[in-house]
Amino acid sequence: MAPKRTSIYDIAQRLGVSVSSVSRALSDHPSISAALKERIRQVAEELHYAPNSVAVNLKTGRRNTIGVVVPSINRSFFSSAIEGIEDRAYKQGCDVLIYQSKDSAEREERIVHSLAGKVDGVIASVAADATDHGYYNRLSAAGVPVVLFDRTDEKVEAGTVIVDDYQGAAMAVKHLLGQGLRRIFHFAGPQQVNVWRDRMRGYLDTMREAGAILSEAAVFEGENTSEEEGRRFARTLLAAREQAGDGALPEAIFFAGDFAALGAMLELQRAGIRIPEDVAVVGFANEPFCQLLATPLSSVDQFSYKMGYMAGKMMFDRLRGEPQVGIVIAPELMIRESSLKTKTLK
Predict the structure, then answer these.
(1) Mean of the pLDDT values across residues 253-280?
(2) Of 252, 193, 188, 194, whose CA–CA distance to 225 is shortest?
(3) Is the dihedral of CA 226, 231, 237, 240 positive or negative?
(4) pLDDT by residue (tens digit) across 156-215?
(5) 201: exposed, middle or buried (Cβ count in 10 Å: 0-12, 13-18, 19+)
(6) How many Cβ atoms from other residues are within 10 Å of residue 288's Cβ?
């Protein structure tokens, strides 16, 4: 015969308190004193008490599950953010369901529709392919809180956790300007996405404030920020150089993403362009590979794990009834060899 499962009645009997007091203490209810909570937790541990999650869920209507929707899990940024979300969820005794939108609006909408009734809340970074993410509002209207991180949409009723993309871009450009560089180009991501739009604004405003050169060719908007798009951008620069000479090349390039920077660096170096001697380069995201390249890549750190962890915390705050808020994380520029035309600059 299986041993009898410890219940809150057993804990109440051991301590001589009411069952309701035990229940509230184990739920961290503010009406129970810290001293009594500690006594009840100690006895619960001694008796190997484990809550019946099925009964708790039936009583509260909770599923103890959070849905996470990201464009891709094969990027270090998103995998690190998911780790932060999962670590926070684990502390709450919650499970996490992870979905990839593959940057497809159709796929994202289908995922979000399927999550209704499955999860207590949804944490997401929206698909770049979509211009209208209103399907998330249907979750909010159904009482399922939504938290957006990194890629957000102001038309969605949600709490948000982002890095200051505008400031990160400004830091990168100021670093290049500080070395006396003026012909600085920008590889931008699709402008319907907030992160790439804010990085573009940071670049443009900083360049204008410095009175630096902004030619028609200075901004290249990629279809995405992949390595292949970075290579395509580099090939356009090399084609211009073939026609107009070395003067067609920029002195520096600020990339909206590290993978695009990687592709461009490889393509330029294959053509004999030296980095940073001929062209200085700064990326954005601080992917792990940045430090491992033959010419280590300078990049703006987004603190992806922290972003995910804070998104998880915000979700559980929302589930406790706290209002939605917007959190902005300060970025940090990691300066490495790829952008140091002045070798003594740190």
Answers:
(1) 96
(2) 188
(3) negative
(4) 999 999 999 999 999 999 999 999 999 999 999 999 999 999 999 999 999 999 998 788
(5) middle
(6) 11
Amino acid 131 reads: T
Beta pairing, strands 159-163 & 146-149: parallel
Quote the tokens at residue 185: 């180009």
Residue with tokens 């849905």: 67
Other beta carbons within 10 Å of 277: 9
Q: What is the CA radius of gyration of the chain?
A: 25
d(CA 292, CA 322): 43
pLDDT at site 58: 40
Q: Please state the three-class secondary structure of 190-248 as a single string.
A: CCCCHHHHHHHHHHHHHHHHCCCCCCHHHEEECCCCCHHHHHHHHHHHHHHHHHHCHHH
